[in-house]
Amino acid sequence: MERLQVAVATREFRQPLKRAIETAASLGAHGVSFDSSREVSSAEFTDTGRRQLLHFLDERGLRVASVDCPIRRPLYDERELENRIAAIKSAMQLAFQLKCGVLSVRIGPIPKQDAGLSYDVLREVLNTLARYGNRVGTILAVTPSGGDPEALLDVLQQVTEGPIGVNFDPAVYAMHGIDSLHALRTLHTFVSQFRVRDGVRDVEDQGVEVPVGRGEVEWDALLPMLDDTSFEGWMCVERTAGDDRIGDCGRAIEFLKRVMLR
C-alpha cells in the first residue's frame, strides 16, 4: 500500500469521547471509527457539535474512517424491522456528515436461499439500504458473522440498488474455523474496510479474540493479498476483549506497520 491508513475503534476505550480521540492520536492512528449509539448519536449531535468534533479531530491529524451502527438482531429479523432500518439510515446520514461515507453494521448469519422469507427479507433490506446510501453518499459495509463466505458473496451480488461493501473481519473467520485467506479471496471485490482483529478456536470449539499477531490469522499472507487487491480503504484496529484494550490496539498498529511496510 502506498499509504497505510490505520484507524482505531474508540468505543472499547471506555473513555469520554474527546479523551478517546486523544488516546487514538497517541497510539499513532490516522483515523477513528465511532459507535453511532454510544459515542456520536445523530439524535444528540447538532450541526455545530459535528463541526466542532471534526475540528477537534483535524487539530490532532485524525479523520473519521467509519461509523458503526450496532443492532441487536440480524438484518432480516422482522421484529422491529422498520425501527432498525430507520436507525441504520440515520447512522448512514451521520456518517456522511462526518465526512467518512462508510457505515458498518452486522449482518447476522446468512440464511439459506431455500429458507424462504428470511433470505428474501435480507435481500430486500440490503437493497433498501444500498439505495438510501447511494442517495446520501454513504456505503453500507456489512460485517460478517462467520459462516460460508460464498453465501455472503451470493447475497451481495443480488444488491443492485446501490453500492454495498464488506467490513472484512479475519478474526471472525478464524474463530469459526474458516480460512480467512479463502474468505478474503472470495469477498475482495466488496471489501470497503478491513477490521484488524485476531482470534483462535479453543478446545471447546468456541471462538476467542486474542491480541493481533497471537491468533490463527495468517497476517504474513493475508496483508500482502489485501495489497494485491488494490484495497484503498481503512484498516480499523479494534479490541473487544482483554484487560489492556488500549495497549493491545497500540501494539496492533505497530504490528501492522512492521508487516505492511517492511
Largest sheet: 8 strands, parallel, barrel
With strands numbered from the N-terminus, the spatial order across the biggest sheet is: 1-2-3-4-5-6-7-10
pLDDT under 50 segments (min length 5)? none
Secondary-structure element series: EHEHEHEHEHEHHEEEHEH
Architecture overview:
The protein is an alpha/beta fold and 262 residues long. 42% of the residues lie in helices and 18% in strands. It is built from 9 helices and 10 strands. The protein has helices spanning 17-26, 47-59, 81-97, 117-136, 149-156, 170-175, 180-187, 219-228, 245-261; strands at 6-9, 31-35, 63-68, 102-106, 139-143, 164-168, 191-196, 198-201, 207-210, 234-237. The strands form 2 sheets. An 8-stranded parallel β-barrel has the order 1-2-3-4-5-6-7-10, surrounded by 5 helices. Strand 8 and strand 9 form a beta hairpin. Helix 5 (149-156) runs parallel beside helix 7. It starts with 5 loop residues before the first strand and ends with a helix. The relative contact order is 0.14. The model has no long low-confidence stretch (mean pLDDT 92).
